[in-house]
Amino acid sequence: MNVNIFSASKKSNSTKNSSSVQNQPEAVRVALSVVNSLMKRNQGYDNDSSTLFFVNPETQSWVYNNPRFTDDFKTEYSNYVTGLNMDYVCSEDIDDERPDCVSYYDLSNEEQQFYDKYGFYPFQKGQDFPKEVKFVRYNEKDGYIITNGGEWKDYIMYIKVINEDGQWKVDGAGRINIPKHLQTGLGPTYR
């Protein structure tokens, strides 16, 4: 019986060690570092305005100049920045009394589709998101890393990594370049 207890204890320790940062594949280390850095940049609003950090010029510059994001990621990120800047669209779930806001229903069909896809923060679940994500699993075959929100056990986010010119890069995260069926851990979108 002591052997079984020792064996179970030994197995538990090796599992714990395999998820430590040092023992993770380089693709996972790069992805967690880059995505968590982006998420930490987005904890709230700019000091001088109501601009989300996600869309402020400093964060945009950081993303666009970061060699660890693919060009496809940067393009989709740019679409989210544009969508989040559509603050002229009236909020439908509250009485929006801004005289200059435009009803969603007055937008063109193309604008409505764009707003439906990009008019919200791509890492949010409801109105919030965790400060960082933690590694759960990595599938080397398809490049998907599954993460959770640490204490937010029901927050599941996929990160897509690819090896481009010998460097691991983030090609997708949250709702950016991630297929809709893998976004369910982030909850429903507004529409």
TrEMBL record:
<feature type="region of interest" description="Disordered">
    <location>
        <begin position="1"/>
        <end position="24"/>
    </location>
</feature>
<protein>
    <recommendedName>
        <fullName>DUF3828 domain-containing protein</fullName>
    </recommendedName>
</protein>
<feature type="compositionally biased region" description="Low complexity">
    <location>
        <begin position="7"/>
        <end position="20"/>
    </location>
</feature>
